[in-house]
Structure to design on (1016 residues):
């Protein structure tokens, strides 16, 4: 991870800026005062310097750093101009907020003149510090950045005809059918799964660059720009399917699996690239390779509709805008002047894999001078542009390379490669001396069977196989471009000898900037956190998938909603979920219901199940709380209301029995099933309550009042139908203490009732006691599935049983988080017992070894173990809640890049002494609960807390002394019960050798995997 480790909380009163606070590419910052908060990490719609946006009112945001306690902001000013030098005056500004007195502000939604298409805008934020009465006002610190608008759709009012799309959708024009001979007896036929070769397309044009003035004028379609050298070139491109584009043989951009997955009947994302530096004088060639991808490839598990969900063959849409020094524009568009053919890639599919046949290679086809006269003209398939939308998230990228941990020869020319890490991605393989027509086959798997060979039964119909066919050249490289697999192991067939220098695993995932880190004294828990991180990387691939390996890889709503609190602490997922929430909205049914997966797919029930459809309510609420961006709620509120209204309309008795879809209940719970009506009605109440709170935030008073009343009525119905109580003595006789039972008497039933506030206050303690009894009786262990597991540790902790949460965390028998780690896991499993020594593998129809849902414990590692949290009334971490639960650990730490700035916590124990270090960003405050067995011993930087400026004592809580502190860095010490002897470290193991492919970015992740024991 870039930036300091979680433990890096300065031990003094002057707050040193964290590494990365100098900003991001495109940022420039100037400090004005020794006591000024400094803006850094400027964002436009939660992205750094986005190139090509369609949003007419983007959010311009910033974070703050400071050098001293209490260095808080008092006011800000945002200015936007088309030129950098226009930011310092008034005449060239397109927007100026003026000085705004708002110490809580961390952003401003653009409200200036309409943004023009294809225009770069520069912006600047000034932040004034708060000054004491009578103190000389200090000048502001400022920082600058930029964003650029995209190519306006034809229907956009701000655009003109020249700014609208002109390109046509084009595809491969197949030639006449060729003759076919029967396969030779004994020949191993190549299974192409009915997939067609990947089309390649090219278009040549001439241009004159600004680097020289010797060559001829441009000759592409359009007007102007012919006599002037090109000073700016932008490529706007998308595909129905997947694309990879080159200009003069150089790949454009670094996006993988572009343009990403959407429901193509609703939206098609396009990307914008600056290709100015790739132009050359004279002839230029714009070239593309297409693949089926989600558009026309295999997706999902429905055998009657295994693929071609949206179309039958891939299509390209591209527009290259060349701007001359005089401002005139020349345009190169996709149309029937493009030439098309097929080439090396004989098939490529996300599930089935990719085949490269070097005998079909046309060397130089991407470069000028290639003779394409024998190619066919492209087929124009349409001219519609109304579904085009600029990408709002970062693309999938190759982010790491992992070298083999071990290579084992298992047969003649057959090797098993262990990369030591389960991941989503591809293998890149270098082969020498591959004869003409000879094949190398790469198969993938997550685990090995008892014989030491690939276990692929759990892949179901996904072939996950890549193939290279030689043409006799001395050296060849198989580097798939339009597929990805979930794997730790690869079987390489057809190579007599294999060196670790010849093979590497390339990890792919949506490039969500890493924002958090966690560490503690227990190596098992550190490994658990690494498993959670790798599960998130592996399954955030354009959409939040359930698993990366089998024939599914769908955006299941429940998986995403239970894991989101963990995901948002690990990474900045604001832009990622902005995109996916549009997929969720696109998948809504005509009567207002949310679905179970997004994008919507045939074969999965459209009607959302309890806990699944409710994600359309829960996720926007959590994103607003995390990123302090009410637009998440404004966009979602109509759908939230429609969902709750749908449930109420079909369940007038307020117990959710009807229109429950497939009702997965508490999916994959190993214990007694929780009654379905209990699960459903709990989520009904919760969604109604969050809808009311969203309306409150947006100022919709009448709407809020109505949904608050509904939520209260559903809570009452829940209690009347599913909750019983009696008063009994210790031996069970009538009288004595209160006993509360939730129907079914399951852990998940109590967790839902307590987490969602469904019980009257006088019954909550008794329900929490019963929950603790059930957990203790089970091991202590959990008997919950996907819905219950995310709530277990937080609910136990909130009701005074952090000790049980720690016990669950440290359990090593199934069901537990550590059991899989003891048997080789490097990611979270789908099932608690996906494999055991006694039973072997569970049913392969539903047994992923890389499935993040049970990894929702990651939230409590940050919030509970380390103690990094925000108060329930806080958004965007303005009011922090620092309350560590040490358990029997010796130390723990967490660091998080919040939307306000860096939050960091570290505590450590030495004998009976505890030290707690806290970092609070400017503009925020914190409640700090110092763990102590004697509150009288608490000191801050050696001083009695009552004598410390910027610190106010609060009422103590059990086991803690509490204080409210202003922004800055603090060091508390206190007496605490002696720590137990440290646990022995895990068995040493060589971690995967990993190379990060990221450019330098704020809070980028470390890709060093956790050590592990032998696999099953």
């Amino acid at each position: 991870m870039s930036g300091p480790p979680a433990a890096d909380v300065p031990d003094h009163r002057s707050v040193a800026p964290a590494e990365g606070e100098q900003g991001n590419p495109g940022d420039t910052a100037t400090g004005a005062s020794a006591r000024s908060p400094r803006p850094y990490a400027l964002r436009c719609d939660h992205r750094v310097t986005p190139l090509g946006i369609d949003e007419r009112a983007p959010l311009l945001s910033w974070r703050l750093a400071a050098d001293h306690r209490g260095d808080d902001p008092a006011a800000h000013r945002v200015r936007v101009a088309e030129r950098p030098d226009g930011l310092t005056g008034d005449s060239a500004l397109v927007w100026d907020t003026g000085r705004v007195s708002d110490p809580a502000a961390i952003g401003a939604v653009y409200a200036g003149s309409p943004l023009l298409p294809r225009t770069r805008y520069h912006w600047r934020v000034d932040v004034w510090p708060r000054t004491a009465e009578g103190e000389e006002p200090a000048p502001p610190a400022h920082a600058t950045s930029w964003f650029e608008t995209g190519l306006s759709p034809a229907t956009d009012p701000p655009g003109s005809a020249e700014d609208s799309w002109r390109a046509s959708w084009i595809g491969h024009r197949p030639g006449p059918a060729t003759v076919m001979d029967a396969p030779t007896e004994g020949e191993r036929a190549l299974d192409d799964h009915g997939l067609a070769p990947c089309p390649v397309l090219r278009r040549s044009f001439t241009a004159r660059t600004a680097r020289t003035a010797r060559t001829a004028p441009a000759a592409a379609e359009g007007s102007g720009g012919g006599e002037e050298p090109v000073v700016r070139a932008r490529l706007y491109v998308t595909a129905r399917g997947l694309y990879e584009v080159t200009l003069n043989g150089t790949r454009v951009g670094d996006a993988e699996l572009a343009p990403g997955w959407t429901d193509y009947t609703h939206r098609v994302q396009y990307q914008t690239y600056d290709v100015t530096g790739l132009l050359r004088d004279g002839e230029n060639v714009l070239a593309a390779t297409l693949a089926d991808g989600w558009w026309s490839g295999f997706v999902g598990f429905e055998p009657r509709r295994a693929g071609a969900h949206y179309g039958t063959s891939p299509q390209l849409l591209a527009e290259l805008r060349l701007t001359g020094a005089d401002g005139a524009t020349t345009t190169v568009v996709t149309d029937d002047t493009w030439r098309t053919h097929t080439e090396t890639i004989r098939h490529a599919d996300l599930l089935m894999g990719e085949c490269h046949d070097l005998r079909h290679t046309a060397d130089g086809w991407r470069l000028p001078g290639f003779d394409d006269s024998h190619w066919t003209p492209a087929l124009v398939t349409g001219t519609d542009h109304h579904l085009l939308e600029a990408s709002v998230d970062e693309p999938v990228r190759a982010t790491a390379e992992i070298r083999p941990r071990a290579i084992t020869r298992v047969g003649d020319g057959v090797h098993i490669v262990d990369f030591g890490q389960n991941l989503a991605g591809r293998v890149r393989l270098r082969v020498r001396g591959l004869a003409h027509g000879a094949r190398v086959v790469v198969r993938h798997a997550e685990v090995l069977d008892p014989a030491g060979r690939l276990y692929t039964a759990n892949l179901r119909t996904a072939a996950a196989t890549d193939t290279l066919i030689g043409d006799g050249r001395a050296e060849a490289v198989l580097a798939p471009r339009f597929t990805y697999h979930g794997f730790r192991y690869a079987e390489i067939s057809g190579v007599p000898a294999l060196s670790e220098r010849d093979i590497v695993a390339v990890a792919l995932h949506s490039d969500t900037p890493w924002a958090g880190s966690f560490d503690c004294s227990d190596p098992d828990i550190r490994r658990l956190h690494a498993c959670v991180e790798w599960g998130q990387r592996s399954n955030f691939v354009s959409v939040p998938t359930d698993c990366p390996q089998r024939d599914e890889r769908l955006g299941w709503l429940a998986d995403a909603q239970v894991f989101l609190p963990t995901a948002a602490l690990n990474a900045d997922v604001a832009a990622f979920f902005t995109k996916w929430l549009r997929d969720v909205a696109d998948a809504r049914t005509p009567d207002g219901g949310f679905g179970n997966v997004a994008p919507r797919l045939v074969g999965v029930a459209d009607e959302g199940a309890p806990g699944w459809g409710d994600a359309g309510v829960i996720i926007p609420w959590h994103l607003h709380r995390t990123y302090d961006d009410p637009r998440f709620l404004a966009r979602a509120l109509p759908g939230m209301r429609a969902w709750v209204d749908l449930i109420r309309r079909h369940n007038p008795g307020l117990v959710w029995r009807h229109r429950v879809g497939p009702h997965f209940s508490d999916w994959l719970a190993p214990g007694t099933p929780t009654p379905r009506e209990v699960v459903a009605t709990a989520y009904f109440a919760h969604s109604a309550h969050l809808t009311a709170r969203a309306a409150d935030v947006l100022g919709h008073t009448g709407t809020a009042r109505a949904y608050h009343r509904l939520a209260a009525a559903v809570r009452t119905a829940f209690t009347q139908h599913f909750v019983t109580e009696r008063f009994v003595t210790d031996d069970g006789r009538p009288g004595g203490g209160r006993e509360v039972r939730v129907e079914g008497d399951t852990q998940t039933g109590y967790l839902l009732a307590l987490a969602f506030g469904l019980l009257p206050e006088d019954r909550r303690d008794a329900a929490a006691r019963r929950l603790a009894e059930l957990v203790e009786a089970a091991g202590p262990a959990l008997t919950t599935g996907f819905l219950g597991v995310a709530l277990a540790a937080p609910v136990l902790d909130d009701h005074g049983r952090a000790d049980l949460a720690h016990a669950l965390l440290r359990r090593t028998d199934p069901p537990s988080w550590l059991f899989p780690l003891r048997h080789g896991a490097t990611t979270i499993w789908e099932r608690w017992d996906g494999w055991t020594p006694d039973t072997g593998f569970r049913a392969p129809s539903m047994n992923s070894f890389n499935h993040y849902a049970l990894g929702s414990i990651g939230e409590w590692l940050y919030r509970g173990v380390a103690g990094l949290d925000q108060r329930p009334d806080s958004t965007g971490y303005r009011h922090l809640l620092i309350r560590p639960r040490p358990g029997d650990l010796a130390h723990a730490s967490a660091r998080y890049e919040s939307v306000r700035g860096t939050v960091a916590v570290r505590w450590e124990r030495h004998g009976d002494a505890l030290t707690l270090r806290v970092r609070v960003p400017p503009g925020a405050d914190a409640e700090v609960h110092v763990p102590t067995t004697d509150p009288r011993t608490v000191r801050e930087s050696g001083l009695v807390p009552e004598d410390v400026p910027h610190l106010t004592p609060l009422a103590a809580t059990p086991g803690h002394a509490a204080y409210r502190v202003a922004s800055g860095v603090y060091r508390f010490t206190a007496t605490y019960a002696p720590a137990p002897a440290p646990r022995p470290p895990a068995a040493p193991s060589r971690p995967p050798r990993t190379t990060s492919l990221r450019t330098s970015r704020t809070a980028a992740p470390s890709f060093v995997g956790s050590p592990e024991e032998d696999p099953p």
Q: What stands out?
A: The mean pLDDT is 90. The first strand starts at residue 28 and ends at 30. The radius of gyration is 29 Å. Residues 310 and 1001 are 36 Å apart (CA to CA).
